[in-house]
Specification:
Layout: E1 4-11, H1 14-32, H2 43-46, H3 50-58, E2 66-71, E3 76-81, H4 90-98, E4 105-111, E5 119-123, E6 128-131, H5 134-144
Antiparallel strand pairs: 1-3, 1-4, 2-3, 4-5, 5-6
């Protein structure tokens, strides 16, 4: 079975890196105790119902399969796959919620046996792009950066109730 390698380095503060670590630890706790609650510091990020939001984004009960490490000297958080099985569906959405002010962000993944066939994911404020052409990544990142003093605003929570099936 092929294993997936994830390459993502994000320049951030220790507090910003702690957000990802808190999500990672919460999901690990839920695997051990189904009633576990996320730490209070995630309430500001995930709203009034952080438990349900995080579990929905992560595709619970599927494991996140991603760990983080923070280098204080460089101010860089590195995300890596655990056991070669990262949850690639959850990662871009978690990046949107956790780091909207850092977008756009690009990262690559590849199967261990074929590192030359990397696939790049570019997460922007209003779109997620995927490419196999590494040479396009820098230009796409630049194109997705906000222009001038455009306010960075992202509303991820529904503003009205979701439709019912009998509507």
């Amino acid at each position: 079975m092929s294993l997936i390698t994830l390459a993502l380095e994000l320049t951030c503060t220790r507090e910003e890196a702690a957000r990802f670590a808190a999500v990672e630890l919460f999901l690990a706790e839920v695997a051990e105790d189904a009633e576990a609650e996320p730490p209070a510091e995630l309430n500001a990020v995930f709203g009034a119902r952080p438990r349900e939001t995080i579990l929905g984004l992560a595709g619970h009960p599927q494991p996140l399969g991603i760990t983080c490490r923070y280098d204080r000297e460089l101010g860089v958080m590195t995300l890596a796959a655990i056991d070669g099985k990262p949850n690639l569906a959850a990662l871009p959405v978690l990046l949107l919620w956790l780091y909207p002010d850092k977008l756009p962000i690009a990262y690559s993944v590849h199967v261990t046996e074929r590192p030359e066939l990397a696939v790049w994911t570019i997460v922007g404020l209003n779109r997620i792009e995927i490419t196999q052409h590494e040479g396009e990544v820098a230009a796409r990142l630049e194109a997705l950066r906000p222009v001038g003093d455009t306010p960075r605003c992202l509303y991820l929570l529904p503003t009205k109730p979701l439709p019912r099936s009998d509507d």
